[in-house]
Design brief:
Length: about 140
């Protein structure tokens, strides 16, 4: 089953994987907001593009392996995925380590007026820091 939200979510992931930040920007609503694992809501389509750019710059070979898709009505979509890549640039204040990274994440979008209005993304940042060798596993 496809919905407006699920189709937009798929387009968003495809744009990120193609590194097409202009297309990604075009998918965002004028009142877009992003909430990451820190729980802080930030507003603006440029912020959404900046989050993707940060990960793409840090992990130039990044890929998003979608594991599960959920459509919750026509206006909400949830995707569980594993983000993978090689740490070649600064990420979360950590200089490049050359290490491989794989992290489970959950991304939820809400759609308004045919665009992505709100995005919430959850991931285990401690796991990222452990894989990069910054935090111990103890």
């Amino acid at each position: 089953m496809t919905t407006v939200a699920r189709d937009l979510h798929d387009k968003m992931f495809e744009a990120i994987e193609r590194r097409d930040l202009d297309e990604l920007r075009a998918l965002y609503h004028a009142e877009y907001s992003y909430t990451g694992s820190d729980g802080e809501e930030q507003k603006g389509a440029e912020l959404g593009v900046a989050v993707s750019k940060m990960f793409l710059d840090a992990l130039p070979d990044a890929r998003l392996d979608v594991r599960t898709r959920y459509a919750c009505g026509d206006n909400v979509s949830i995707i569980e995925f594993v983000g993978r890549g090689t740490h070649r640039g600064e990420l979360m204040g950590v200089p490049a380590t050359g290490r491989s990274l794989a992290v489970w994440a959950c991304d939820i979008i809400e759609v308004r007026d045919g665009r992505i209005y709100r995005e919430r993304e959850y991931m285990d940042t401690l796991s990222i820091l452990q894989q990069l060798g910054v935090k111990s596993t103890d």
